[in-house]
Amino acid sequence: MSAKELRAPVTLAPGEVVELWVRATGPGAVLRVERGGATVYEVPQPATHVEFHRFATDGGEVEVVWTPELLEVSFAYSYRPAEALAEGITLWEFEKDGVKQLAGKELAEALRAEPGRPQLHFSAPRQWMNDPNGLCWIDGRWHLFYQFHPGSVEWGPMHWGHAVSDDLVAWTHLPVFLHPQHDLPRLGASGGAFSGCAFECPDGKTRFCHTERLPCYAMDDFREVQRVVESSDLLVAAGGRTVLEQRPAAAGMDFRDPRVWWHAPAGAYRMVLGGAIAGGPAVLLYGSTDLASWEYLGPLWRADPKWQAEGAAAAECPDFFELDGRWVLLASMYKHADPKTGRRNPILAVVGEFKDDVFTPAPGRPPQVLDFGSDFYAMQSCAGAGRRIAFGWLHNWTSTAAAPDARHRGEQSWPRELSWDGHGQLRMAPARELDDAAKVGRSRIKLNGDKGELPDAPFEFRVRNIRDGMTTFSATAGGAAAFRVEAGCEDRGSPTRASIILPGGDECHGQARGTGELRIIYDRGIIEVFAAGGSCCGTRRIHPERPPDRFELNVASGQGELWRLEPAAP
């Protein structure tokens, strides 16, 4: 007996493009598009692996025909190329009774209403997301590209997802920007379009550079090359070419995550790459005059041997930029585990001088651990609107199983503004849009004593002027401990210390010189702590979340405030 075919009417605009990732779950699966009974697109025998399909029609009324019991549609959307940057995609949901289409405000509201999805933090509309990529500011808008697997909520063959925002709060989802070079699902391999960057060239064009991991069948045996791509419409990557294949003799297999810029003093391009030399985490420096031929200029930075001794295999996702006259190198320490706490994969910031292709770290200043939590990784930044904005991927390294009904997995941090504190340390503060009532609705929750109820919504606890003593914010869920944050200093002049404490002895701690404002942002399982005005930051992603409903607090000094946060209506 043949499987039942379901028909769903859909109206398409002229030239509207439809993109789908599908796989057959049994023999006899059907997927086709008809107009007036005539087939205009068909996949007569859908593959049993996830397969990408793309089609466009002249528009009008069509019928989508498929076999729901034998076909899995993991991700599907349509878009009008000429309007996509403004309108975004229309998400297609293949349901038992038809195809549901969501776009614009309706899509934003539907995603926000999904249980477990954070409200203020960016997430992909569906499936797996990890590292931020290609962060850039173009024509007054922020573009966020990201590592994306459209086939599942688990990590898999890498693509680049894409979204754009006018204000870092409301994001318009755009078509998948970059696909793997090879049909990896068909090959039964992993790999694809790994992390990279956007960069502006002297001709004013924005180009992109990324790592392509070639088809990989064993996670301890792979090959990575660097590619440059262009895009005339900022919707689809084109003109890709491999520009760097050979890694240095002493480098290991980890050879990825390019950060490219036009370096005016040299009159040439420079690229930093993450990797290792002789097994020790390192960042490699390359130069080019034409983006096609690259010369290895040597290691830009090599980590202290202690990092290798503690398990770090490579320096991933390097970022290298000048901020107010000082150069900053960021490196994510891949596979590192702290021998005392078990905390994994920190991000280091090294401050110094970059001259004549030599980076000299500032003497007497060890690398700064940027976030004392365990769930902030692969940070990338860009300059725009007179400031430097950064995102990090919020990944829980200790509880990694996806919920059985998860429709998305992975979020980006709240955007952070980078600056210097008074002690020469890099400071990260929540992007100022969080305080803009036109972008994020803020309603103050009156504090009656030291206990109270928490809203079923994102919230922020804030102390504006901590002078001394420790402030504690404790949240409970159904009477049981959910999390606790402690921050402050023993007395004036001593360092600020901050901690995030979860049930079962799961704790992380950090400290920084100086005092100042404390901010705790909570958003459906995401905890972001900014102590000492952003000099001491910590992030945790609780998975699965137990929604906190009550709080207790002790404010040692200054004035405590509790705010309900709500994104402005899209």
TrEMBL record:
Domain Glycosyl hydrolase family 32 N-terminal intervals: 121-430
Keyword Hydrolase on this protein?
yes
Mind telling me which InterPro entries this protein's record contains? ConA-like_dom_sf (IPR013320), GH32_Enzymes (IPR051214), Glyco_hydro_32 (IPR001362), Glyco_hydro_32_C (IPR013189), Glyco_hydro_32_N (IPR013148), Glyco_hydro_beta-prop_sf (IPR023296)
The domain of life is Bacteria
Q: What class of enzyme is it?
A: hydrolase
GO biological process per UniProt? carbohydrate metabolic process
Q: What is its EC number?
A: 3.2.1.26
| Glycosyl hydrolase family 32 C-terminal domain location | 513-559
Q: Which UniProt keywords apply?
A: Glycosidase, Hydrolase
Task: Respond yes or no to whether keyword Flavoprotein is given for this record.
Answer: no
The Gene Ontology terms for molecular function here are: beta-fructofuranosidase activity
Which Gene3D superfamilies does the record associate with it? Exo-inulinase, domain 1, Glycosyl hydrolase domain, family 43
SMART domains reported for this sequence = Glyco_32
PANTHER family on file: BETA-FRUCTOSIDASE (PTHR43101)
The family note in this entry says: Belongs to the glycosyl hydrolase 32 family.
Query: What is the recorded name of this protein?
Result: beta-fructofuranosidase
Ranked from the top, the taxonomy reads: Bacteria, Pseudomonadati, Pseudomonadota, Gammaproteobacteria, Candidatus Tethybacterales
